[in-house]
């Protein structure tokens, strides 16, 4: 063994074995080359299984073989177990055969192989390392390494024996050769290892013989190897190295099976890792191997697999994965196609009769004939579909048609046919079952299915369909009968109109009123029909009540059938057409000669339109409808930045815009630009009276060819025009070569001129009194919403007249008639309204006559007419109109006959006109049908106006809203219009009795002066009254004192007006009596008198139910009036009674007191409810009420009382119709004097629900989020602390605290002062405690979000339903902990305050129950339009009550307390649960106004 002193010793190993010609070794070698290859180059990619020994002479003489019969395989760096390294040089002794002679090549060493292989010293100059057979002759293409020093000394031998079956070689011959070879190499005294090669193809007998051979030799070791399987190759050489290096221990030999098993485990593990790596990396089957290999070449799992198995196997693994991905993609696409196929068949082949007898092939042909076929299917030129590029078109959802030719496609078609058959049968059975249910008459609305199913279980259809279908059919049946029952219930409510319309607008029905309503309705079968749907029934009732007292056209129960909406539509269309028929009215009024037009378009379209207009003009003058206009055109591209610069608008001053488009893209550009242009125009025009500039949208023609998108363009253009509220000009029918037609340009120009005319009318100043005096009569026509006749029927008598014209701008339901009435032509203003809108003007507006329309086919229509007519003053003429189809209905239909007869009887009783209009007749189309009525109205006009003026002067505060702000006659009082009034900017309130758009004439709220009976102008000082003048609401029935003021300058009043009024008053003498103070001398609250005690007084005795406060009487001598001093409770003969006698000898009353039918209908309800109440029962209660609450201030709401207002009511209409009896009774009874309660402030009890802003000033404190008002040091807002401190200091003895409303002016003043100075002292301000309480509640109402978050409302409701008292409180305690920290602290503070207030309930009468009624809507801010909210009202109130009662338990860790007797028992005027009924009204009730019931004043 050669000894080398280098740190890394080098050993040379010679691999020997059977070699020679094919005759000697057979067809293949014993595996020497493969063994050397695997050891020197272990990587699978560097392993070559074929190494030939048959070479050409050239290859044999090359530098690799170098004319030697041995190969130099190279050098291997070996590291032992001890960490020492050595270098191993491998030599293979073989014998090369000439490919020509098939004999061994001649070499320098001519010894036979056995002797030559045993040589230990080898020499070959410049011999290169051998790699593979392909290297021979191409050495420059491979790595070239020379054998070191050209010589080697062999240190050990590896003797190879092939234990496989071999190829034409006998194993015995190989053993003989091995014996001979071993005997030669053993002489060299070098270590020898026997390597059994090809053990993966091992023959057991051969292996045993080799083992026997090894066993017979001393120090000879056998290693079982397989170069192809890479098993024990390295072990073989390592064992030899250990023998060559004496310092190493004896090697451990592992059998082939054990080594093979370990090797396979390693291969499996590495293969799994590589496959997972491929799956994770490759998701798209289009990925190439080159991209993946470059991406993974540095990954350890990839390198290990390549080294162990090779690149070829790795690529095969990748290819298999790619194919798997592709097949999965094909499978998904096929499943998607097959899944969508049933839906496609449902659309294309949905008719069972058409396909039931067709084969699948015929069905395919039928589908091809459908126009939608191309939308669902695609026919490919190549098949199958998954071999085409359609496979990768994932965005194309069309199904390849060749899928239909598969078995799955045919199966789906057959299933589709069967599904249609079964579905047809199922639908037939469902319909049959539906008819079965219709025959079961005992099914009631809301009845559960479980109660009904037992009666229909034997039905054939029941047995056929599934349970879900049964429930579905029953649900539809229930829905139908429920809807029908609800409609009948709503109609029943309309039929009981007298039951609901006896209170004023914006009132809140008391508990007794609600009890009365329920008692009457409970007798109705239609009421009991909804017994199982009590919640829905209650919601419908509350919705109806809410609408009755707070009517608007937006909330009309008839929806789109509302008369107000229909009248507006008809008048808008018909009156516009009438205006078009007249000759150039707007040309003369607006005096337009020059029109500046801006043309907006895209890609030169605007310039083309300008050229077309110029081509139709002469010197820029355009003729339209006989008038010449000078046109100034400015074409602008829609993308131009000039459009967004308002400077050009000021310079050019466009009168209108022509916006032209020819594509969807240009239309979108225009839609985006129009809003911006409008904003720039608004910015450039600072004048608040400026009106919007008209925009005209014009569709250009496609002159090249017929555009397929034209219908789409037309539709989109019309939609955009509707959205932008502008005119759309379409392409006229027919064909023409140009993009723009002359008719289009004329239509667009007319639209601009019409817009300018409209703006001119709107911009014109308010007409003077003289101009407006041309309207002689004001007539209101009323009809009921939902009546079964067309609105045109009742409007046609006016619209078909040539003398009909539109009303004032903004009066969309008013028309003007010019008719000869009496001795000359008169202007008659006719306003057509619904009954619910008319109620708001019945008392408060000057109306000369009513035309009351009802349908003779509908009982509720007659009931509504009766209810409305009953409250109309009998000085106003009435025309009753019955509507039916024809005269034959009277004789053929008993119901129609009854209603028409009733209407005629009522008209006879009240001396009114009665007529019938027939929809199938033409007579009603003549205006003369109402001429007699107009004559009667004209005759009574002066009396009507005199009574209206006197009635207003008695009320003192005028009307809540004047629908007619000007006098209809030059001799009648009129209002002056002040455009600079401070209230101009205020919009109408959100809950107007007649809606925002039904206003007949401009709102008079801007005027600051009123005119008294002598023609004096006097200022209006009462702020609450001003608030009501700015909205449509009727004030509460607390009548204010008459405003009798000193006579100021009257120079602005028409002298004729004075003479007219004085002439009407000469017949009566006004007796001087106690006077009232001037508005400047009194506070706002002093404008109202104190209500006298009227509980024992009959309504018929006196209209004057108010006593004068003592302080007012003490100052009465200081005030003067031109009429003298009005007597408030003296002899009425000197008052209106004298005036009445001079005007007809009868005191004006209401029509219900002149008609037995109207009066009996009204009284019938109340007698039915109170017939079981005896005098003994009612007497003590009345006496107790009188004693305890007789001197209550005007702050209390008289409509919230449980006291029965009908126990002292009118029993005979003759009582009020006899003025002499009235005078005698009034002389006998003097109203008692009442003391003014301490610090009471008058207020109005009705406010709009959730107004846009409750304040009329800007505030940085009120209405901002709660978290902005607190700090860690001050968790409670300062305003809340101040209010609570003031209330607890001064108000814990105030009766009705938080229930009685405070003066709104004082409430606003408190907040305004606090806005100015947060340190304001409420004690110094000396305000009423109820005003402070109202300001505190208003603070919470103005918060952006309620104090109790909406998200917790459902949890609170569910907690309130818990029956167990202690469990309920525990759950509520957990919920309150979920409050946001800021809300929790404020809520805790407020509830603690309310708890302290409830402890004084003996004096305040405010128990925890009453406080919760007042406060829960403020704290929770519910949505009363939601039916669920209405049904949980009581639960919400009980939650707040629990918080108040158990305050110590919830917030301070106290124990649960039992409610005290004072807490548990309501005050004497409460009615337990019934007191909550007034709280369940839908909007627009305002949470701050929900109060405990109080005694009402008798209705007048």
Automatic annotation (TrEMBL):
Quote the InterPro entries the UniProt record gives.
FF_domain, FF_RHG35_4th, pG1, Rho-GAP_domain, RhoGAP-FF1, RhoGAP_dom, RhoGAP_pG1_pG2, RhoGAP_pG2
Q: Where in the cell is it found?
A: Cell membrane; Cytoplasm
Domain PG1 pseudoGTPase: start-end pairs: 589-762
The segment(s) forming the PG2 pseudoGTPase domain are 778-943
Keyword terms of this UniProt record: Cell membrane, Cytoplasm, GTPase activation, Membrane, Nucleotide-binding, Repeat
Q: One GO CC term of this entry?
A: cytosol
Task: Give the compositionally biased regions (Basic residues).
Answer: 1147-1156
Membrane-crossing segments per the record: none
Name listed for the protein in its UniProt record: Rho GTPase-activating protein 5-like isoform X1
